[in-house]
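For the sake of transparency, this paper describes our internal protein records without simplification. The tokens are whole numbers drawn from a learned vocabulary of local backbone shapes. One such record is reproduced below, unchanged from the form in which we store it.

. . .
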Amino acid sequence: MNSIRDTYKTILKATEEQLYKDKNSKFYGYAFSILTEDDAKIYIETLKKKHHAARHWCYAYQLGTETTIYRANDDGEPSNSAGMPIYGQIQSFEVTNILIVVVRYFGGVKLGVGGLINAYKTTAQLVLEHSNIIEKTINTDYLISFDYKNMNKVMRIIKEKKLHIIHQALEMDCKITISVRKKEAESTFDIFNHLFEIDIKKI
């Protein structure tokens, strides 16, 4: 039995704005699908323009599948009262490649640290409950190089194994890039690696 974990959860697309209110303060929550830290910066800047009159733009994000990085930002709220409660929900829902931003409009009444933690946590939870969470596979990409005469041999294996082709350049010197589920990556590599006149390498 193959016990390699090769799936992860993320959101399909950006989630509709969710509003949470507490003692006249308004908390607008957003979730975005991201692949890089630069993606996160762009979405945060966009929300700062949209909500230019707000007081705080707190956020947390997580990137990666097998090894992950995360960041949590309180943006002026008391330490660990905003970013970490948001990040806690990302962990609770077990999602990655995601940014959650909660924009706060201060309503004139202080909520206290406990009230803030609850508000940011609840807003992040609302956003995730309204998100379309999907499961994706962790894939390994390979480049297969071969002469045109070996085309049928290569294509037969790709068809039999139902391998996903990302890119192909089929001339006298052929190159095909395939994406394989991590679970099946090693066996797929071995099949091509044992073929005469066919080169396969991980990319």
Observations:
- The longest strand covers residues 25-33.
- The first helix runs from residue 37 to 50.
- The two ends are 27 Å apart (CA to CA).
- Residues 138-202 form a domain with the Alpha-Beta Plaits fold (CATH 3.30.70.240).
